[in-house]
Design a protein that fits this description.
- By secondary structure, this protein is of the alpha/beta class.
- The protein has two domains: about 1-100, Leucine Dehydrogenase, chain A, domain 1 (Rossmann fold); about 105-240, 3-Layer(aba) Sandwich (Rossmann fold), CATH 3.40.50.
- The chain has helices at about 15-25, 45-50, 80-85, 100-115, 140-145, 160-170, 225-230, 240-255, 265-270; strands at about 1-10, 30-40, 60, 75, 90, 95-100, 130, 150-155, 175, 185-190, 215, 235-240.
- A six-stranded mixed beta sheet has the order 2-1-3-5-6-4.
- Strand 1 (about 1-10), helix 1 and strand 2 (about 30-40) form a beta-alpha-beta unit.
- Helix 1 (about 15-25) crosses helix 8 (about 240-255), helix 4 (about 100-115) packs across helix 5 (about 140-145) and helix 4 crosses helix 8 (about 240-255).
- The longest helix has 16 residues, at about 240-255.
- The protein is globular and about 55 Å long.
Length: about 270
């Protein structure tokens, strides 16, 4: 049996098993199964041991272990190295390698959004992006956007974490929490505010041009207060579902060499 896992804490909400088991079935990989496992920090070492012993083939890593897993790994791919964030593990030539597919997952989603007829923006090159948050996933978003030549302003409740991120990604402009740039083309929420239904970001985005696109990495709930308010202001919005599916697609590819499709059946499967 080829076993795959997503590890994190909490993990109950994770939709990764639904996605990967859908592709496993679709591609006839009958000897494979993907499960979720809630782990404590002290368990990380054992996860690596299980991969070394071929008890587990591939692992997805989610909150709060994307950085904490790094000391246990033999190698990082270039994106994981640059972002210091790992969401996929795989053994190659007896070495446990940490990959980051969040960056490419977000990048692919963004690439499909532009050129954009609603916002009349051709590409993100030299465009102004406002990022909220400086948590585990933010470095992947910053990296993908800088790779596309975008200019980034970032704000986080804990200023120190924003300043830390700036050290790895020079060029970021840091704003105090609660402030917003006068103008921008895209606003991305990378904070966890909105995961719980009543949570709200204490920034008022009224008065922004209708061409500004609002992007929330959260996909459950489908529409956070952040996106709801943007929509009511007349702005276009997008949630984190496609990025989530795309990062899963690239992880599946690392493990199986198959690049699976995000087809209608999968989208329906997730909505059940
Ligand atoms: P971590 O910070 O451990 O990497 P995360 O879930 O990846 O955790 O990130 C959570 C993000 O949401 C952080 O940017 C966090 O801000 P802080 O760095 O100040 O903690 C942000 N966040 C969560 N709850 C928030 C709140 N109520 N108000 C403002 N920011 C919040």
């Amino acid at each position: 049996m080829k076993k795959y896992l997503v590890i994190g804490n909490p993990i109950n909400h994770s939709l990764s098993p639904l996605i990967h088991n859908y592709w496993i079935k679709k591609h006839g990989l009958e000897d494979s199964a993907y499960e979720k496992r809630r782990v404590e920090k002290k368990d990380l070492k054992n996860i690596i041991k299980e991969i070394k012993n071929n008890e587990i083939v591939g692992v997805n890593v989610t909150v709060p272990y994307k950085k904490l897993i790094i000391p246990f790994l033999d190698e990082l791919d270039s994106v994981a190295e640059a972002t210091q964030s790992v969401n996929t593990l795989y053994k190659k030539n007896d070495k446990i390698i940490g990959y980051n597919t969040d960056e490419a997952g977000f990048g692919l989603t963004i690439d499909k959004l532009y050129p954009n007829k609603d916002t009349k923006i051709k590409s993100l090159k030299d465009k102004n992006i406002f990022i909220l948050g400086a948590g585990g996933v933010t470095s992947s978003i910053v990296s993908a956007l800088q790779r596309r030549g975008a200019k980034i302003t970032l704000s986080n409740r804990t200023l120190k974490k924003a300043e830390e991120l700036k050290k790895s990604f020079p060029g970021i402009k840091v704003l105090d929490w609660g402030k917003k740039p006068h103008t921008c083309n895209l606003v991305v929420n990378t904070t966890s505010i909105g995961l719980k239904k009543d949570e709200k970001i204490n920034i008022n985005f009224t008065g922004y041009d209708k061409n500004v696109l609002f992007y929330d990495l959260i996909y459950n709930p489908k529409e956070t207060n952040f996106l709801r308010e943007a929509r009511l202001n007349g702005n276009k919005t997008i949630n984190g579902e496609m990025m989530f599916l795309n990062q899963a697609k690239y992880a599946f590819n690392i493990w199986t060499s198959i690049l699976p499709e995000i087809d209608d059946g999968l989208i329906k499967h997730l909505e059940q």
